[in-house]
Design brief:
heterodimer; A: 2 domains; 2 strands; B: alpha/beta; Rossmann fold; 6-stranded parallel sheet; about 45% helix
Amino acid sequence: MQQNKFKFYSEYNLPVLLGRKATNIYELLDGLKTVPASSLYYHTHKFLKQHHYLVPEPTNDFAYWIRNILMQPKLGEMTASINIAEFNNLEDLRNRLIDILENHDRSGYGINCQKGFEFQFMSCKTFWFKNKYDAANLNEFTEILKKIDISTFYVNIFGSKLRQGKQKNDFEEWFSSIGETELSEKLSNIDPYTLTLDGLRKRILKLIKQYGKSE
Amino acid sequence: MVNLNDYEKIVGKEIIEGLHIIAGKLNGKMMQHINSTAVGGGVAEILTRMIPLLKQLGVETRWDVIKGDEKFFAITKAFHNALHGVSVEFKKDDFEYFTEVNRMNSEEMTFDGDMIFVHDPQPVCLIEKKNKTNKKWAWRCHIDFTNPQKDVMSFLETYINRYDSSVFSAPAFSRKLKIPQILIAPSIDPLSDKNRELPDETIKKIVEQYGIDMSRPIVSQISRFDYLKDPVGVVEVYKKVKKYSDCQLVLAGGGATDDPEGMQVLEEVKEAAAGDKDIHILFLPPSSDIEINALQRASTVVLQKSLKEGFGLTVAEALWKGKPVIAGAVGGIPLQIKHQYSGILTYTIDGTAFYLKQLLNEPTFAKELGINGKNHIKENFLITRHLRDYLLLFLSLLNEGDFLVFENNLQR
């Protein structure tokens, strides 16, 4: 039973400036092809954490810049609506972004943004720390989930798949391992990128109440 | 004496626990800060507040200050201006004198820290000692590097590139360097006199002593009297709005009385405001932190109509007080405000007037911006986040890799 304990970690990121910027879509595309994978992670997840109290969108920096700075709403929408939840590695996510930009109408690609509004490519150093929380069963899990800092469940939902290449997020994996297969399946049907982090916390707690057998 | 636990009721228990977890990985390590002044200026202010907190977290911390004479500081002031894009002519002797003062300081100083954290250009050449110390060295740039003068930048880069890491305050300030560049934004301290909660009666007493009517809307800009803060533009904004919405304007700020430009700006503002009893121009003395706090808290809408800006922490101060803020989209301000989510970003006098009318007429929308703005500052621009970033930087210098996992006391 001991190895079935769910161990909670806290995630923190230290942003790294890559000293590279894009003034138009061509330069954005060039950058996307060459920046480190950690840059993809940073630009598709930073907004979630920095603005987690807001409405859920926009979910990534690329989409925000294309739509709000370059004023290309259709392309902005296409990059904003990438279903990041379906990816379990950052290279596939990179290829999807490149695919969208390479196959879109290029008539506005050479238009430069206003000076001072360039897209600044960044990446991050990511730190996971084991914190004091361990859950031995669903009841303990629920009580911990109610009170932990967002950085704690952020790592389990967003980080585990993209940074570790897992097929399921940590919560889904653990629910399955303790026999809560229906709960695990219901959780896999949620797109976490379309919720605020507090909204996501509430949704998971509601699912546990509805489908948790041992709760 | 400020206590780390006092921040718990503001940022939450989990944030403070997180700081302890991270600091726990730095047991027995020492962080050594070096800058050029112990008092005055933003660097000294933040170090004064941060160092006791680092010590409370169990991270041994030391702060050293380099010595220099009038000639040295005249050169560093000229460097500062040149790095901000002002054209300055330097002689070869200036660079030689600068390195010589650094060399003398390096002979007198001991470098005991496991991380040597050097702030700003003044002590940059201390890196010459790196090979003898076998420590990790980081260089922290607190100034705007978007348009630096080439000769000064090239000179500094020969030293900066020898550090293990550099730290900048905003993405736009980053350079093409050979070393990693970390983004660590500045912060405000929610427990300082400028930002702490004030009782309503204190706010009322302070504001009314300036003849301001608390029962009517108050629009304020609290900033130095400086052309780059566009206070005359703010008066124009107010005049455009006043026709449609009753309000008072407060322009409050300090400035040295021996600064001829500051006094000239003040005179121009007074002239622009002449004859309007609802415009209050307040020239505040130094140490007016509580007065500034009260004026911000009494405001209905806060403006920061800057034309050029460093990071613009006055925006964070107003947002922290839950105020709807309309600010120029310059410098570090767009990092603090997402347009129409956590404030309003503008570019012109007409645009600022348009949004000011909107916020005065739509208090529900204004309130929502204020709530989002306060949350954004709480998550990203308080001293606790700044502390965490410094601890993470320290850890990243001691451990290689972009993805570090710490299991209990061991790194995985």
